[in-house]
Predict the structure.
Amino acid sequence: MTRPRQARPTPGTIAAIVLGAGVPLAFVGVFFAWPVLAMVGRGLFVDGALDLGGFSDVLARPRTLRLIGLTIGQAALASVVCVLLGLPIAHVLYRLRFRGRRMLRALVVLPFVLPTVVVGVAFRTLLRDGGLLGSLRLDGTFAAIMLALVFFNVAVVVRTVGNTWEGLDSRQEEAARVLGAGPVRVWFTVTLPRLAPAITSAASIVFLFCSTAFGVVLVLGGSRFGTIETEIYLLTTQFLDLRAASVLSVMQLVVVVALLLLAARARGRRTAQRRVDAADAVHSPRLGDAPAIAVTLLVAVFLALPIVSLVLRSLHTADGWGLGNYIALGGTGSRNALVVPVWVALGNSLQIAVQATVIALVIGLAASLVISRRPRSPGLRRALAGFDGALMLPLGVSAVTVGFGFLITLNQPPFDLRSSPVLVPIAQALVALPLVVRTILPVLAGIDGRLRESAAVLGSPPWRVMRDVDLAIVARPVLAASGFAFAVALGEFGATSFLSRPDRPTLPVVIFRLIGLPGGDNFGMALAASVVLAAVTVAIIALVERLRVGTMGAF
């Protein structure tokens, strides 16, 4: 029996594909590739000629070598700790059935989307003298940074591994037990090999996030500890050493590309595994689950402590307990530390985050619709994979590099946007775009192609097939992607610290300014503003969790 000839794509279909790929590529090209390459060019070219001497000059500096070692060391250590803690938590949250599991999942994922400045301030209140853990004397130490990085990124391991683990067929483990294998042997010979791609993907993403951490390191590390990311910031803002900053950006970009390729390869191996109904994969807690449950409860307490400490300290004023710090948000702080009141900055943040979310959603949805297609041509498949990888690059490239790249490229017609109010939303949309794609794309890729074929056979034109099949199925994930994009844009600090105007600051920029100025009133206002920003973020994530769409598992 001969196979029916596949229908040739219509001009309208081709135009839709070109438009769906062209708009995201143009957006990423103009607002990401161009600024980043401009920064990179300053490290590779001098007076129009290729000059690699800057690399030897920068690498010969003892400070640079120390910061590279700190960056790699803290990222590697945080990745290992996140994996060791994330595996038992993933087992509890995705393989056990108990009351309150959804609430515990929300608590675990919450730190990942909290603004970095808020987390930095929360850990300072927790670890400084008078804080809940002030007796440990960890304020301003390397351990404080490590705790904050683990606080941020353990959710990546839990979600990535948990979503894979939940869908694995448990009959292989049961068969191994029937044949006499003990729990430890079953774990190392059956379960761990099947989870290895997900663990590799999660660890590489955690390493990427930790090596490019900015806000939390800047707040907690001070002048003693830093990373390549914070060094790029100092070189560009304080020392105006653009060439050295460009050299570090090049090195960082190489590492980011390598890690994204590793994560993509691991993700491909993970999605090829057979998945089963999640209801068949979970079971009630058993005696052997006690160690994993204990670890989960301890980590849950650890995740809650910084937020509890932040709220408590925000209610403490010079006159005792009260709402004085929150009332002060209507002013500009001690000695007029701010140009505008904090509530105005919050309004700016909300407005800019809405604009950034719309941009990221339109670009991300168009790109996901194109990438989700499964062409027969190997060349087209490789092209789509490359397209997908290009959209992930903003996830790990220095936000400082992008922000400063904006200033040196988007300063002349037709892209003279330095004074334009759309500059900050565009920068924030770049940061949110990878999360939007990783949320929507797996759902689109999982749509049975026969649904589209049936709609086409019934006479529906391509645009209606897309509306009635693709967009109808992806509606809830789009809402979830919107929530995550909004939360990420709301707390973005790296690029925004470069681009926001003094008369129109965002709330994270205002918080960082308040904690850097003397005066108890200013610090109290920073605490209250951090609680407000965290509360808005929590409300958004709670809404997303109600949609039951896992995001981290898409990595």
Residues 1-7, 549-555 have pLDDT under 50 and may be disordered. The chain has two domains: 17-51+321-555, 55-224+274-313. The longest strand covers residues 45-46.
